[in-house]
Specification:
- α1 packs antiparallel against α2, α2 packs antiparallel against α3 and α3 runs antiparallel to α4.
- The protein is built from four helices and no strands.
- It is mainly alpha-helical.
């Protein structure tokens, strides 16, 4: 039963990763962030998760700036900043 549960979780994570790739390719950053947060729930040790989230929040902020919504963009940039490891350079 445990092996079955692990396989279900693995399949769910794989499906979310596939959907994430599509969202990123379509520059649907809000959806990408949602999917990354779901992946984080399933597998908090997912490789590069924090960096992917930081990049998605930053890209979403940039998208909001381009749409003339700097107030909402600032919120995204703040979320991205929270994901930067202490002492790490910010890009």
């Amino acid at each position: 039963q445990l092996a079955s549960g692990v396989m279900i979780i693995f399949a769910a994570e794989e499906q979310l990763n596939h959907e994430l790739e599509s969202a990123i390719a379509a520059e649907q950053w809000m959806e990408a962030i949602r999917l990354l947060r779901l992946i984080q729930t399933i597998n908090p040790n997912h490789p590069e998760l924090h960096e992917q989230l930081r990049q998605a929040y930053t890209a979403y902020g940039d998208q909001l700036i381009a749409q003339g919504r700097p107030d909402l963009a600032q919120e995204q940039y703040q979320q991205a900043q929270l994901l930067v490891a202490p002492g790490a350079p910010v890009h």
